[in-house]
Amino acid sequence: MRLIRRLRPAVAAGLALAAGSAAAHTGEHTVSGFVSGFTHPFAGLDHLLAMVAVGLWAVQQGGRALWAVPMAFVLAMLAGGALAGWGGTLPHIETGIAASVLVLGLAVAIGRHVSLAFGVAAVAGFALFHGYAHGLEMPQAAAPALYGLGFVAATVALHAAGIAGALVGRHAIRFAGAVIAASGAALLWLA
Predict the structure, then answer these.
(1) Quick one: how far is CA 163 from the chain centroid?
(2) From CA 151, how far away is CA 132, in angstroms rounded?
(3) Banded model confidence at residue 95, pLDDT cuts 50, 70, 90
(4) Phi, psi of 18 (to 5 degrees)
(5) Quick one: which of 121, 74, 127, 69 has its CA closest to 96?
(6) What percent of the chain is predicted at pLDDT more than 90?
(7) Cβ within 8 Å of residue 128, ≥6 positions away
(8) Three-class SS of residue 31?
(9) Confidence check: pLDDT of 74 > 70
(10) Buried (b) or exposed (e) across 176-186, using 16+ Cβ within 10 A?
(11) What is the mean pLDDT of residues 76-101?
(12) In this predicted structure, what is the pLDDT of residue 178?
């Protein structure tokens, strides 16, 4: 247990330093449907960090935010995916995703309580960018419903990981927020 505690700062710093450019660009996938949708959030550090941060921040906010903030993210992410699937446009996707990592990381690091309405609106705004990127990444051969179900399942799992991670204590949560924010700053710099 002591070894794990000693390694946490090194692992967190390594994640912050490993942040590459935002993975919101389109590309080719070799799988389709549920598997492709499920693996997409895990393939980009930007998506992974933002979604874990949502879970951490929801725990910090407490009360109804524990379920409302992650739910708002999932619903707005679906709307962003649908917007991309229907051919709509959303400007500055990579910048929006990178900013979500920075802002959500800072929110966790600071740990200040906000109104539920503000928290839900902020997270939903960021989720539109993530969902739009997921929609752009959907392989042409994929069944949209299965692909969407896959990225929703992965997102819920990442939110749950953030919620579970929040159980380790307030200081660890804030440190994780600082690491996420540093990664977001690096992503914005590279975007």
Answers:
(1) 13
(2) 12
(3) very high
(4) -85, 0
(5) 127
(6) 43
(7) 76, 77, 79, 80, 83, 90, 96
(8) coil
(9) yes
(10) bbbbbbbbbbb
(11) 94
(12) 85
| Torsional sign, CA 61, 62, 64, 70 | positive
Q: Which residues contact 134 (CB under 8 A, 6 or more apart)?
A: 37, 40, 41, 77, 80, 81, 84, 147, 148, 151
Q: What CA–CA distance (Å, rounded) separates 59 from 42? A: 22
User: Which conformational region is residue 63 in: left (phi greater than 0), alpha (psi within -120 to 50 degrees), or beta?
Assistant: left
CA distances from 66 to 9, 56, 93, 166 (A): 26, 9, 27, 11
Domain ranges of the chain: 32-190
Please give the Cα distance from 58 to 43 (Å, whole number). 23
- Which residue blocks in 138-169 are alpha helix, DSSP H? 144-165
Q: Give percent above pLDDT 70 in the chain.
A: 80
Q: Which two tokens stand for residue 153?
A: 């399942």
Q: What is the mean pLDDT of residues 27-46?
A: 74
Tell me if 120 sits within 8 A of 146, measured CB to CB. Answer: no
Alpha-carbon span 43 to 96, nearest angstrom? 18
For the chain, how many residues are written?
Answer: 191
pLDDT at 78: 93
Q: What tokens appear for 85 in the block?
A: 């699937």
Q: Give the pair of three-digit tokens for residue 16.
A: 């912050």
